[in-house]
Specification:
Blueprint (H helix, E strand, L loop, with lengths): L1 H17 L5 H15 L6 H31 L4 H11 L3 H15 L5 H19 L4 H14 L8 H8 L4 H6 L2 H25 L2 H13 L10 H19 L4 H16 L3 H34 L2 H10 L10 H15 L2 H17 L5 H9 L2 H4 L6 H10 L3 H26 L5
Helix pairs in contact: 1-2, 1-15, 2-14, 3-6, 3-13, 3-14, 4-5, 4-6, 5-6, 5-7, 5-10, 6-7, 6-20, 7-10, 7-20, 7-21, 8-17, 8-18, 10-21, 12-13, 14-20, 15-17, 16-17, 16-18, 16-21, 17-18
């Protein structure tokens, strides 16, 4: 009963959002609450909601200050030099621009933070895409796939960290076998970017590309803003922030709060102007925080009501005892839809331990379950419970349904390739 209700809840949520019957925020709040009432757990609803909110509260605060920080950095034109370099290298060619988007996305995803990665990639490439009339959803698609592959796989990226901790694994043993599949999947993303670039090249008027190339060569398409001491300070502060993030010197929310305060004081001296900047950037920050809190309600209710565990058990029951050796492959395949619909906390703490426990009965190493589970991160980055996705959608000015209609086909394709690469290299076995 709970499993059926859980799958019905997930399906209802996606239908409401994709058909635009409800906004993502209202749908992500109402569907689990309705399911809890149907399950007869209305008296526990308050506790379930609060448990979910407590889980995502640090993430909501982190995203608030991360958006404020990088919003300030963009207003301070920190990323203009990066845009200049990419524009020069692209020479106006849509194929080079798309491949450059993939390369930069894969590189910046190493810091493990989705909001940071999306801010940097969009700041560097969106002006170029808009100038040539290229589809900005390509930026969003490539960035999401890159983040899911790199940040979703590395032990410091957040997702895999949950699996390593909940299954009590050695991070080196987990990760060393994922380097090969991760590298091959990165090449697959670059190949997809190349294909998307070819499609854009055919759509765009060659004369527009030629004209833009001349603008680049003449310097007209390049920013003329000169770097002053503040840009150098902001660059140093951002690099230091990234280093501290990777070294895990302190909690991310603490680092972003301190960095934002320092940046605000250095770049804007007048208090009234500081307040105006916060108001401007709040337009981007507040919707993100609302969605994260809504996702917390969704996760809290679905988890505490027992629907997530019931769904995992029901899915696992499909596997016959004689085919227990394929549980890692089954986990990788199951990770795609569950990763898409669920928050990382719900998935890694609710579903993965159940799968690992079942796999242990067949002598399967829990490292393989963790690796298989990480493969679902590509689709997770495109799903409604991925908090950074809402930042990305705000940057490219697209709604969830529009983005998923464009991105899901490529995300599924690359995810399938990731599974194949993991099997090929022995990261997971059958």
């Amino acid at each position: 009963m709970l499993a059926v209700l859980g799958f019905a809840t997930l399906g209802s949520f996606m239908l409401l959002v994709m058909r635009k019957y409800l906004s993502a925020f209202t749908a992500i709040m109402l569907t689990p609450i309705a399911a809890a009432l149907v399950a007869g757990k209305g008296s526990q609803l308050g506790d379930m909601v609060m448990n979910g909110l407590e889980t995502v509260a640090p993430t909501a605060v982190l995203l608030l200050f991360a958006v404020l920080y990088f919003g300030l950095m963009m207003e301070a034109k920190l990323f203009d030099p990066v845009s200049r370099l990419i524009i020069k290298a692209s020479k106006g060619d849509p194929v080079r621009i798309c491949v450059g988007t993939a390369v930069l996305s894969l590189c910046v995803a190493l810091d493990g933070d989705g909001t940071t990665s999306y801010m940097i990639v969009c700041s560097a490439f969106l002006p170029i895409y808009r100038r040539l009339g290229m589809n900005p959803l390509i930026v969003a698609t490539i960035a999401a796939m890159s983040l899911g592959t790199i940040s979703g796989t590395t032990p410091w990226g957040g997702a895999a960290t949950r699996g390593i901790s909940v299954l009590h694994l050695d991070a080196t043993e987990y990760f060393i076998h994922m380097i090969g599949p991760m590298a091959l999947t990165s090449l697959a993303i670059i190949a997809v970017a190349y294909w998307l670039g070819l499609r854009e090249r055919r759509k765009i008027d060659p004369e527009a590309v030629a004209a833009y190339k001349l603008e680049i060569e003449s310097g007209e398409a390049l920013s003329t803003a000169r770097a002053d001491w503040r840009i150098w300070f902001n660059a140093g502060l951002t690099v230091l922030l990234m280093v501290l993030l990777i070294l895990q010197v302190a909690e991310l929310v603490v680092l972003f709060m301190i960095a934002f305060v320092i940046a605000l004081i250095v770049n804007i001296h007048v208090i009234s102007e500081q307040q105006e900047l916060i108001k401007r950037q709040s337009v981007n920050a507040v919707p993100v925080v609302m969605l994260v809190l809504g996702a917390g309600v969704f996760t809290g209710v679905m988890t505490d009501a027992g629907m997530i565990k019931a769904m995992a058990d029901a899915a696992l029951s499909i596997v016959p005892d004689s085919m227990g050796n394929i549980i890692p492959l089954f986990t990788a395949v199951l990770a795609l839809p569950l990763g898409f619909f669920m928050s990382n906390d719900a998935y890694w703490f609710g579903v993965v331990p159940v799968l690992a426990e079942s796999a242990a009965h067949y002598g399967i190493d829990p490292n393989e379950i963790a690796r298989a589970g990480a493969i679902g991160q590509i689709l997770h980055m495109m799903g409604p419970t991925s908090a950074p996705l809402w930042v990305l959608l705000g940057l490219v000015k697209a709604d969830l349904g529009e983005f998923q209609k464009h991105a899901l086909r490529w995300g599924i394709l690359v995810s399938i390739a990731y599974i194949a690469f993991a099997l090929l290299t022995g990261a997971i076995s059958i």
